[in-house]
Design brief:
mainly beta, about 15% strand
């Protein structure tokens, strides 16, 4: 950070710096946006000038825009409190609430050698301050927070030069890489089985009688008619049927394989550079302020 002692306020706790002197790389800080490249228009769309520079406080908050006014017969640079400006980087325009020709005529000239002290600021505020304002200016106690309408500390995102740093953030995303479907199908084949069976049958044989020639007394023989013997015949018939049984069991489950994935990249961090010239004493505050920026 390069500090030009000539632009410090006489109040040590309220210095103001030109934008590029406060942060030589301010374009990178704002992501390539350059407030100095913007034209100034009224809310009705009338061009009233262009941005020549900006003044920031010791914490990097925008306080004033340096307007190169371009009214008919007026050509001078004046300060515009940042609360009266609406910056639109997309349209490359700054819209202002008011900034009439009469105000420009009454405002003090601003140039490279101008020392913006508390008296100069109060002269500027007096031109823009609403007639109904109840602010009682006290040089010893005045702060920008007393007039948010002029400095709008809580609404303008572009009021502070922020120091950024990059970090590597590791996140995990669960992505489906595939699926396994387990099903069954039926295969058929012809099975053959052999089983022995038995079948009974009667064999009747006629054979020559024994004792051929033996004489038998007819009175001793009892002749019969009808059934003289019964033999039951049996046979085996095959009983073939099908039965189902468990041949094999299949278990399906998932297992999780763990691995460590490493990545590296170059990250950047902004650091504050303070360069001074001459016998300058200052304290660098490290605490946070209560202002929302």
């Amino acid at each position: 950070m390069l500090v030009d002692i000539n632009i410090l306020n006489s109040l040590e706790n309220m210095p103001l710096y030109k934008l590029e002197e406060f942060d030589p790389n301010y374009r990178e800080t704002f992501g390539g946006d350059d407030v100095k490249a913007l034209e100034v228009y009224t809310q009705e769309g009338t061009r009233v000038g262009s941005i020549a520079d900006a003044l920031v406080d010791q914490d990097g908050r925008f306080r004033y825009l340096v307007i190169d006014a371009g009214f008919d017969s007026i050509g001078k640079k004046v300060l515009l409190p940042i609360g009266l400006a609406r910056i639109n980087y997309g349209a490359k325009r700054v819209y202002v609430d008011g900034l009439s020709k009469r105000q420009v005529e009454q405002l003090p000239d601003y140039n490279e050698q101008t020392i913006v002290d508390e008296n100069y600021e109060e002269q500027v505020r007096g031109i823009y301050r609403s007639p109904t304002s109840d602010v009682a200016y006290d040089r010893e106690t005045y702060t920008y927070q007393q007039e948010p309408a002029l400095y709008n500390l809580n609404e303008q995102y572009h009021q502070t030069l922020r120091l950024y740093e990059e970090r590597l953030i590791a996140n995990k995303h669960r992505t489906k890489t595939g699926e396994v479907a387990v099903g069954k199908h039926i295969e058929t084949e012809t099975a053959r089985v052999a089983i022995p069976v038995q079948k009974e049958r009667v064999v009747i044989e006629r054979v020559p009688p024994t004792g051929t020639g033996t004489v038998v007394d007819p009175s001793e023989i009892k002749f019969q008619e009808g059934e003289v013997a019964r033999i039951e015949l049996y046979e085996e018939t095959p009983d073939i049927h099908k039965e189902a049984f468990v041949r094999e069991e299949v278990r399906v489950r998932k297992v999780v394989d763990r691995d460590m994935v490493e990545a590296q990249d170059t990250i950047r961090r902004e650091e504050l550079d303070v360069n001074t010239a001459g016998d300058v004493h200052f304290n660098e505050a490290t605490g946070r302020t209560n202002e929302n920026v």
